[in-house]
Design a protein that fits this description.
BirA Bifunctional Protein, domain 2; elongated; 13 helices; three-stranded antiparallel sheet; about 425 residues; 2 domains; single chain; 18 strands; Helix Hairpins; alpha+beta; eight-stranded mixed sheet
Length: about 425
């Protein structure tokens, strides 16, 4: 969350400059409640000061003093209760206010204002009409949408044979790249997390409808960003330990309550999917450069797989709740003749660290400061599998496996017979 001092000083500016982000967020309500709370606290301090004056008077209290003391006791009790009630409302309003965008974030109401920063690779020219993965996968016998729906319902898919093997190969390839070449520490975290953990990264309370919750009150994680960022919740780190880099491959679960009817074909938007996540914790002055580094680490996966992509800066109206700046990496899918998001890399600055109380100390005896947190997909495995299938397809329906992936997959192609050669 944003600091109360920042909100108090900048609320009007944020509402004026970024109505697409802050209108209806609770920022207006915060200003009203904060002013009321400060007025009540001032009255409460005055009453307490008067009470202290009366109790410090020597000698036997006179009847008027006794009556005033009794009235003060009741007034102080009522003001304390009112302060507590408003503080709860104020905290509730704070929890719904998104992060403030950095100055370099494009301005705009929706994704139409997003800005393409760079592209890599040339989309392949086919001498046949390229198919989408929802046709390629079933024809090859590696994606089974009907059995996925039978087992669990819509937005679930069964990967079989070479499809399951390809998914596993992609996960191993991505983890090895991030751990061996980019110095991330691999973690295998719980995929059931408590409410405090999801509050820390900003999923709760605002996005509870998009989460799966168990009877015991735990939540299935929507991304490994949640446990990885919270590894150091309620801790004070040594400055020399920064930056910290973590990666994990986990199943992710999203109810997609706010995306009904979108991407119903194929495996672009599933209730369950796997993803390799990368997370950094840095000193504040290092986080802007760290975002460029982290985004580059995600891009490198696609470069090694030789799949065209572009990097897009999200505008203020499309920015995620906890993010101060985000890049989306969009991969080229010839079967859909479009770029589709495969990763989002974000600098959340101190927003998540304040919620999760993750701090560091520059030197002994100095006041702790909040770290800056960053996260990115590197990459979503299902969407990368889609990109491999659609970009590597041949006229006969077989799939050419990218060279960098062959040692992990154990073959150079996929054919309908499931033979691996």
């Amino acid at each position: 969350m944003l600091s109360r001092e920042f909100l108090r000083e900048d609320a009007e500016r944020l509402l004026s400059e970024f109505p697409e982000r802050f209108a209806g967020s609770g920022l207006e309500r915060f200003g009203e409640l904060d002013a009321r709370r400060r007025a009540i606290v001032t009255r409460l301090e005055e009453k307490r000061r008067r009470r202290n004056e009366l109790t410090s008077v020597r000698g036997k209290p006179v009847p008027d003093t006794i009556a005033e003391m009794k009235a003060l006791k009741e007034e102080i009790r009522d003001l304390e209760a009112e302060t507590e009630r408003i503080e709860e409302e104020l905290a509730g309003a704070e929890r719904g206010i998104p992060n403030a965008p950095q100055e370099t974030v494009p301005r705009g109401r929706d994704e139409s204002a997003n800005r393409v920063e760079r592209t890599w690779g040339e989309p392949r020219k086919f001498d046949f009409e390229p198919a989408a993965h929802w046709d390629l996968g079933p024809a090859l016998g590696i994606l089974d949408f009907e059995r996925g729906a039978k087992l669990a319902g819509s937005r679930f898919t069964v990967l079989t044979g070479a499809g399951a093997r390809l998914s596993r190969a992609l996960a191993a390839f991505m983890l090895d790249l991030q751990t061996r070449e980019h110095a991330y520490e691999e973690v295998n975290p719980p995929v059931l997390n408590n409410a405090e953990t999801l509050f820390g990264t900003g999923q709760l309370p605002k996005f509870e409808q998009d989460l799966f919750r168990t009877r015991e009150g735990l939540y299935l994680i929507p991304t490994a960003e949640v446990p990885l960022t919270n590894l150091h919740r309620d801790e004070i780190l040594a400055a020399e330990s920064l930056p910290l880099r973590y990666t994990a491959c986990t199943p992710c679960f999203r109810a997609e309550a706010g995306a009904a009817g979108r991407d119903t074909r194929g495996i672009i938007r599933q209730h369950q999917f796997e993803k390799v996540e990368i997370v950094m914790l840095t000193a504040p002055e290092d986080s802007s450069a760290a975002l460029e580094t982290l985004t580059g680490h995600a891009e490198e996966v696609l470069r090694r797989l030789e799949i065209p992509y572009r990097v897009v800066s999200l505008c203020t109206g499309d920015l995620g709740f906890a993010s101060a700046k985000s890049y989306d990496i969009e991969v080229w899918l010839p079967g859909q003749n479009a770029y589709r998001e495969i990763s989002s890399c974000s600098n959340c600055e101190s927003f998540q660290a304040r919620r999760a109380s993750i701090r560091f100390r520059r030197a002994a005896g100095q006041k702790p400061e909040f770290v800056h947190t960053l996260n990115g997909s590197a990459l979503a495995i299902g969407r990368t599998l889609v990109a491999v299938l659609e970009n590597g397809q041949r006229a006969d329906g077989s799939i050419e496996i990218p060279t960098a992936l062959v040692p992990y997959f154990g073959a150079a192609e996929i054919r309908a017979s499931h033979s691996l050669t």
